[in-house]
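Course assignment 3, question 2. Fill in each field.
Student: A.L.
Task: Predict the tertiary structure for the chain below.
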Amino acid sequence: MEITKMPSIEFPRVSEPTPIVPKQPIASEERQYQEADKAITKEALTDKVDSMNKFLDSTTTNVKFQFHEETNVYYVQVVNTLTEEILREIPNKKFLDMYASMADFAGLMVDEKL
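Answer field:
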């Protein structure tokens, strides 16, 4: 097998990239950041979740947002609207119950040792 010299390929020259200048935030963006820094109350969060549930009911979507009282965490339920059967929970409610009972047990152990 004979190796012959291949013609070289020349690529076009690319100009140097221009540096990116950070843009100044717009007044509305600044307001969004300030609003995001404010603490969200439990009542406001509950109202938003209820409004999302009402919106999803009207679109016949099978998703519900539930609040787990013991862990103060929201979880999602995927529900069959015809049979009201829970198809999936994210995260699983049993897992949240188990986590709450373990945290309660750990708290009891710490309280007894003190």
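Instructor remarks: The beta strands are 63-68, 73-79, 86-90. Residues 66 and 75 are 5 Å apart (CA to CA).
Grade: pending
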